[in-house]
Design a protein that fits this description.
Low-confidence stretches: 1-46, 175-189
Distance between the termini: 79 Å
Largest sheet: none
Strand content: under 5%
Shape: elongated
Number of strands: 0
Number of helices: 10
Radius of gyration: 21 Å
Mean pLDDT: 73
């Protein structure tokens, strides 16, 4: 019975911590017990781990908004960018901490290791395109979709951004034919 009471006590004390730190999640997400899977919010999140006590402490120390953590699923390219920028800011803040966390322990608060790698290899290239940075930030000075992307889509994804970067700052809808032609040329050269 003492073990059961201890478990209940830990769950009760962890709920306020998880819903604190300025979270903008819905009230149903705040009411969830940490032992309940996050799949109730997003079925594609079955691999998402609940935040640990250590991560919650880091979130507090680094002043990371809960809405940017892996607890709240990001659904748009701009949200991914916002998390990426927040992770970079948190990484730079760690140098001022007494007990410096690893970069991985910080990025894990935002997203998993392989996804962070995917974000980083694309987002690091965006910095040289001022209009795209403004568009991703989504501020008042944000240019129109068509002005930045040089094309229009219903939804802008990380894959679209990678294509845009690979095409030198243009979204080329018919680029697949061109890429296939380039591959054919390479194959012909190898045969010769």
């Amino acid at each position: 019975m003492a073990v059961h009471q201890r478990t209940l006590s830990l769950q009760a004390t962890s709920i306020p911590i998880a819903s604190g730190s300025g979270s903008h999640a819905s009230s149903s997400a705040n009411a969830r017990s940490p032992s309940v899977s996050t799949t109730a919010v997003d079925e594609s999140s079955s691999t998402r781990k609940p935040l640990t006590a250590h991560e919650l402490k880091l979130i507090d120390e680094l002043d990371i908004p809960m809405r940017l953590t892996r607890e709240v699923p990001a659904k748009s390219l701009r949200e991914f960018w916002e998390r990426y920028q927040a992770a970079l800011a948190a990484i730079s803040k760690r140098s001022k901490m007494r007990n410096k966390p690893t970069e991985k322990s910080i990025t894990d608060i935002f997203i998993g290791k392989s996804q962070w790698f995917n974000w980083n290899k694309v987002f690091v290239k965006v910095r040289r395109y001022d209009n795209m940075v403004k568009w991703l930030n989504g501020g008042e000075d944000s240019p129109d979709d068509k002005d930045v992307w040089k094309g229009e889509l219903d939804d802008y994804t990380l894959k679209n951004l990678k294509t845009w970067l690979d095409n030198g700052g243009k979204l080329v809808d018919k680029g697949k034919g061109k890429a296939a032609g380039d591959e054919d040329k390479k194959k012909k050269k190898k045969k010769e």
